[in-house]
Amino acid sequence: MANRKRPAAPAKKAPRPSSRSSSTAVGGAATAEIHQTESAPDRRITTNHGVPVSDNQNSLKAGPRGPSLLEDFVLREKIQHFDHERIPERIVHARGSAAHGFFELTKSLKKYTRAKVLTDVGAQTEVFVRFSTVAGGAGSVDTPRDVRGFAVKFYTGEGNWDLVGNNIPVFFIQDAIKFPDLIHAVKMEADRGYPQAASAHDTFWDFIGLMPESTHMVMWAMSDRAIPRSYRMIEGFGVNTFRLVNDAGEATFVKFHWRPKLGTQSTCWDEAVKIAGADPDYHRRDLFEAIDAGAFPEWEFGVQLLSQEEADALPFDILDATKLIPEELVPLQIVGRLVLNRNPDNFFAETEQVAFLPTNVPPGIDFSEDPLLQGRLFSYQDTQLSRLGTVNFHQLPINRAKGCPFQNLQRDGQMQTQVFQGRANYEPNSLAEAGEDGGPREDPAGGFTSFAQPVSETKVRLRAETFADHYSHARLFYLSQTEWEQAHIASALVFELSKVTLVHVRERVLANLQNVDETLAVRVAAGLNMELPEPSEPAAEPQDMDESPALRIIGKYVPTLEGRMVGILVSDGADGRIVKALKKSCEAEGATVKIVAPKIGGVTLADGNLLPADGQLAGTPSVLFDAVALVLSEVGCAQLVNEGAAVDFAFNAFGHLKAIGYTKEALPLLEKAGVKTDDFVIEVTKEKDAFVEKAKARLWEREPGVRPSNYFPAA
Ligand code: HDE
Fold it and tell me: Does ligand 1 lie within 6 Å of residue 92's CB atom?
């Protein structure tokens, strides 16, 4: 036969060849040998309509070298289905990762709500949680400077409750009508199609400068909150103000919070940029691997509760999503916990098709009049129709209500999967009187009711006077930060504005920043080497508020190795006893330890044993670890001293303020990398494991020495 070319050799563990002769083509002609698998009758491939498929390797052709035949329904169906595999990605929050788990209530909120998910202490409610970035497309990297979505679907016994929040408690805009403008401005620019997943460009900062209400959120977006270390280490916030409504119909305002058990932790900006190259799936992999290894991420669930009177007494409007309620004014009460303990089985079916709707609330949880929230109440249902293509998207397994079968008289529509019985598709009906099933009915007592908020106003297109203060909370946030965090905000602003080509846009932002804090504006102007323009005229004079330490990360940082990753760089001839001791003590503190070696096959230790590597040096840089140790032999170090990846390994770990453990043989490499000895650069021996304590934190005091520009001029 003409075509005798063999396909690639099957993998080692290839299944047995088919019992059907693989050298007999359709029509009986001999053809190339193919790799086929034999199937049990109940595991055989069929078409989508159930016809068993005999050959999944060859299309139907007029002879082995002839044209393909139109009648090959097996080929056509397979290719056509493939052609339609993608659905429109989310217009925002396109890139995300998700997991299953449960929510458990630890303290009843019965006084405030009749929602059982918040009153039944000890009860576990199934959840599906999707984390995301906002600006980039579905295929973008995990570590840009961006807000992170934190969307939780609670499958409660009274219907799904979707708490669709972010890792930042406020938002850029006050009114939903500005959302398309905001998103157009931040996404890639319309003519050139870049930058992807980056706010550092003209149109974003143009919009921000012209929308002073965005200043508070900008402070957060420029802070380290926007470059998290892991999805497992972000806080979550419901952002908008909601209401809880109790059995008596009384309402209490509520803000929802998630607090990570592993502590809130971020990366350095330089590190985040390098991680994007080293592992674009950094957060996705981190979440998946942690859950896979049984290290289930956990959050505390907290609420801030306040009555109408307490809300009225605050010097800002709780309906304005650009404001937060400082915990020092209204304390956070921890009332539950969230545990993620199962990875999705299928990314598309679950993570991609999950549809969150802020309108999904069980009886006892209600909305506020926040004009941003009000717009969201329309948007999400609408976007699901365009993304998932049918009003029946709620029937997809990941979206379907669980533990409370839904029933109503809505019928038909594309992709209807329910097969309804009987004639009752309307009500009222009296079919029951004839012995037929009359269908479900409304439940005035148990059903969802809206809080009876009195409304009697003139129709207007106006922003409330109480929304006019755009700077007090931005100032509160900035001044509540530690000096390190303030420096990071200033340098993030310098970085972003340095990518802005329009000088007048930079000037406008500088003019606005002066209403936040004069020293911040001076620093940013110095970083841009620009004159500080006149301050802009604020719509309302900014007020000084009491600092809120709860808004810091560094101040709240939990020193722990729990959920962290330690990398040990080894060379041939290294002392295996030190590696073993280090590994043991780091793992005892909850860390995952990875061995990095010049070659993936590993190294031969001083005692002659082979130590296999988890990562090869060039592909496993130190940015992927929270702390590193260099356990080298003299010869090994001499080889690595001229290896760029090894020098970068040490240089970056130092620059990213991490603890570095070293054997004295590794000193020449540290020297080459410009690593200076400080409290966090410590010798490791088989007896000394002081490194482990240091590995739990970063040495912020090192930063002015490695990135002095962040600290100039001093505040
Ligand atoms: Fe969203 N947002 N949003 N958003 N949002 C969407 O719905 C929208 C806002 C948030 O993992 C979309 O299913 C409007 C605030 C998250 O699937 C869309 C406004 C907060 C996710 C939409 C906002 C969020 C979305 C796109 C201003 C924090 C991802 C895809 C009025 C509380 C959910 C989708 C997931 C997704 C609209 C503002 C959080 C277009 C109109 C404020 C976490 O409907």
Answer: yes
Q: Which residues of the chain fall short of a pLDDT of 70?
A: 1-38, 713-715
The CA distance from 541 to 468, in Å, is 9
Q: Which helix (H) or strand (E) holds 377?
A: helix 371-388
* 139 alpha-carbon distance from chain centroid: 14
Ligand 1 centroid, distance to 217 Cα (angstroms): 16
For residues 194 and 205, what is the distance between their CA atoms, to the nearest angstrom? 15
Could you tell me the CA-to-CA distances from 442 to 54, 184, 436, 445 in Å, in that order?
52, 42, 18, 9
Q: Would you call 421 exposed, middle or buried from its count of C-beta atoms within 10 A (0-12, 13-18, 19+)?
A: exposed
DSSP string, 644-696: HHHHHHHHHHHHTT--EEE-GGGHHHHHHTTPPP-TTEEE--SS--HHHHHTT
The answer, yes or no, to whether any atom of ligand 1 lies below 6 A from the CB of 380, is: yes
User: How remote is the CA of residue 380 from the centroid of ligand 1, in Å?
Assistant: 7
Q: Whose CA is nearest to atom 42 of ligand 1?
A: 171
Q: Give the number of the atom of ligand 1 that is nearest the alpha carbon of residue 179.
A: 27
Considering only CA atoms, which residue is closest to atom 19 of ligand 1? 376
Residues 6+ away with beta carbon under 8 Å from 471: 212, 215, 216, 515, 516, 538, 542
Predicted local distance difference test score (pLDDT) of residue 628: 98
Query: Containing H/E element for 192?
Result: none
Q: Which residue has the tokens 């990518």?
A: 499
Closest CA to 203 of 499, 594, 516, 486: 499
Percent of the chain whose pLDDT exceeds 90: 91
- Ligand 1 atom with the smallest distance to the CA of 94 is 30
pLDDT tens-digit profile of 5-37?
444 444 444 344 343 434 344 444 444 555 556
Backbone angles phi, psi at 492, to 5 degrees: -65, -40
> Both ends of the chain: CA-CA distance in Å?
81
Helices (H), 529-568: none
CB-facing half-sphere around the CA of 609: CA atoms within 13 A: 10
Backbone angles phi, psi at 165, to 5 degrees: -115, -175
Catalytic annotation present for 93:
yes
State whether the beta carbon of 137 lies less than 6 angstroms from ligand 1.
Answer: no
Radius of gyration of the chain (CA): 30
Compute how many other C-beta atoms are within 10 angstroms of the C-beta atom of residue 644. Answer: 11
The C-alpha angle 371, 373, 374, rounded to 5 degrees, equals 60
**pLDDT given for residue 403 in this prediction:** 81
Contact (Cβ atoms closer than 8 angstroms) between residue 541 and residue 515: no
Give the tens place of pLDDT for each residue, 589-609.
Answer: 999 999 999 999 999 999 999
Tell me which of 93, 216, 488, 656 is the catalytic residue: 93
- Catalytic member of 100, 160, 166, 656: 166
Q: Ligand 1 center to residue 152 CA distance, Å?
A: 12
Indicate whether residue 376 lines ligand 1 (CB < 6 A). yes
| Domains of the chain from N-terminus onward | 96-173+229-369 (2.40.180.10), 565-696 (3.40.50.880)
92: CA distance to ligand 1 center in Å? 7
262 CB neighbour count, 10 Å cutoff: 21
Asked if residues 604 and 613 have their Cβ atoms less than 8 Å apart, the reply is: no
Question: Of all atoms in ligand 1, which is nearest to the CA of residue 130?
Answer: 11
Pocket probe for ligand 1: among 379, 387, 394, the residue whose CB has the most ligand atoms within 8 Å is 379
How many angstroms separate the CA atoms of 603 and 571, rounded? 6
Q: How far are the Cα atoms of 72, 133, 483 from residue 495, in angstroms, in the given order?
A: 57, 20, 18
Distance 89 CA to ligand 1 centre (A): 13
What's the CA gap between 140 and 280, in Å, rounded? 8
